Amino acid sequence: MRSKAVVLLSGGLDSAVTLYMARAGGYECYGITFDYGQRHKIEIGSARKIAAAAGIKLSVVRLEMPWKGSTLFSGSGKVPVKRSMRRISNGIPSTYVPARNTVFLSIAVSYAEAISADAVFIGAHSEDSSGYPDCRVEYLRAFDYTVGLGTERGIKGKLRIISPIISMKKKEIVKIGVSLGVPFDRTWSCYNGLKAPCRVCDSCILRAKGFKEAGVKDPLLERYG
Amino acid sequence: MRSKAVVLLSGGLDSAVTLYMARAGGYECYGITFDYGQRHKIEIGSARKIAAAAGIKLSVVRLEMPWKGSTLFSGSGKVPVKRSMRRISNGIPSTYVPARNTVFLSIAVSYAEAISADAVFIGAHSEDSSGYPDCRVEYLRAFDYTVGLGTERGIKGKLRIISPIISMKKKEIVKIGVSLGVPFDRTWSCYNGLKAPCRVCDSCILRAKGFKEAGVKDPLLERYG
Q1: How many CB atoms lie within 10 A of CB A76?
Q2: DSSP codes of every residue in B159-217
Q3: Under an 8 A CB cutoff, do A151 and B145 touch?
Q4: Integer Cα distance of A197 and A206 in angstroms
Q5: For residue B155, which residues of chain A lie inside 8 Å, CB to CB?
Q6: Residue A161 Cα distances to A89, A116, A141, B4, B17, angstroms
Q7: Residues on chain A touching B115 (C-beta within 8 angstroms)
């Protein structure tokens, strides 16, 4: 019997590559994504498309937290656009969702316990997230340690948190994704809820940079011409 | 300005005493409870009553995880009754909800970040939970460490996980509760979803033992005669 893995899918590029890496590593993958009142439901749709392309089950967890804390949460607040790369790495961005990775990882761990999975994969990486405390390797290592103490499978040494792209640059992630056949045209990165990628928000800029440096055309942008 | 604390309320005795301890410690308290598909909505009602008695705000977080893993989750499965105290402490009880404290704590931490709280209080304690890996002090210490790395307030040293009753016996918890005026008649411990406490499930038995050893009558049982 193959080992099972729960894979956090955001609908974005990083988590899609992470899924394909987990699959290539021999895991039977179970996707999980969140409907937590984010402004753009397009992310959930993208996660569904990626899961369908990979031929895996996707569980959508509904989470209603009656407080806000980020410009990504709801209609209020403006998503920062056209910020330079320099400013992205200064301090904690205003798009920070309070303890988001901790919440998502915890629920993924609950799922992993329920289906007796051996791993939870998360596509966190530090390059485009240097301002987010919960995208750092020290944090993920501490969370992994905590799971090893606080879960039934963890105390048996059977549940690990794996973040395979944590130290990669975007261009490397793109290259690996290409080699594994990741359906990039189904991934969504833009922070602004338009019908086409805005090409000016932090996330669009980093994505474009990654594809450019990898020497690959972004199939998503190709589609929008 | 007083320090804020988020307090996890389950509707039970332990978390109610924890709330009154946090309040007595000078914190401005914000309650949080979960509607996560548990079988008995009476717990949420009890949390509301306790919050009202303490004069604090209560946030109810709705969480739909489309998998099960515990007999406490839904109508399927039977809650174990009349188990001896000995059997309670052997291994992991079948009432284990996968990674529940990790999920609840993470969401409480998100709330704490959103309202700039300094602490999250959890009424975990090891006596009646020795089978639950996520009620142990090592686990809570690791979680606290993780929060210190993975949150905005944590990295500033401004967010702690506090479990004031972790090492107490039930009788001590009852005694402290009495001294702080905890409205025990509003708390609910029974695992079986009846109108009155069943008095035979693990939780009822431990509660009765605590009150007996503290030499105090349980106002909840008094009410049901």
Answers
A1: 8
A2: -EEE-TTTT--HHHHHHHHHHHT--GGG----SS--SS--S-BHHHHHHHHHHHHHT--
A3: no
A4: 12
A5: 133
A6: 25, 14, 8, 31, 34
A7: 67
CATH label of the domain that carries residue B212: 3.40.50.620
Contact in structure between A186 and A16 (CB atoms under 8 Å): yes
Amino acid at B58: L
Contact present, A97 and A72 (Cβ < 8 Å): yes
Residues of B in contact with A65 (CB under 8 A): 59, 61, 107, 110-111
Provide the residue count of chain A: 225
Give the mutation candidate from B104, B149, B153, B160 for the A interface (greatest A CB count, under 10 A). Answer: B149
Check residue B98 and report its DSSP letter.
T
Nearest-10 Cα torsion for B11, B213, B29, B142:
-90
- A69–chain B Cβ distance below 8 A for any pair: yes
Tell me chain A's radius of gyration from C-alpha atoms. Answer: 17
Closest residue in B to A133 (Cα) is: B150
Question: Which residue is closest to B143 within chain A, CA to CA?
Answer: A146
Q: A with B: how many residue pairs have Cβ under 8 Å apart?
A: 159
**How are beta strands A160-162 and B4-8 bridged, if at all?**
unpaired
Number of domains in chain B: 1
In which domain, by residue range, is A34 found?
4-224
Interface check for B181 against chain A (CB to CB < 8 A): the answer is no
> Would you call B146 an interface residue with chain A, using a CB distance cutoff of 8 Å?
yes
Q: What is the pLDDT of residues B36-70, one digit of tens each?
A: 877 678 889 999 999 999 999 999 999 988 876 54
Dist. CA B43–CA B50, nearest whole Å: 11
Q: Which residues of B touch A99 (CB under 8 A)?
A: 106, 109-110, 113, 147, 150-151
Q: Per-residue pLDDT for chain A (225 aa), expressed as one digit of tens each?
A: 899 999 999 999 999 999 999 999 999 999 999 998 776 788 899 999 999 999 999 999 999 888 765 444 433 444 444 333 333 333 444 455 689 999 999 999 999 999 999 999 999 988 755 578 899 999 999 999 999 999 999 999 999 999 999 999 999 999 999 999 999 999 999 988 788 999 999 889 999 999 999 999 999 999 887
Nearest CB neighbour to A151, from listed B67, B111, B133 = B133
Name residue A15's amino acid.
S
State the ipTM, two decimals: 0.86
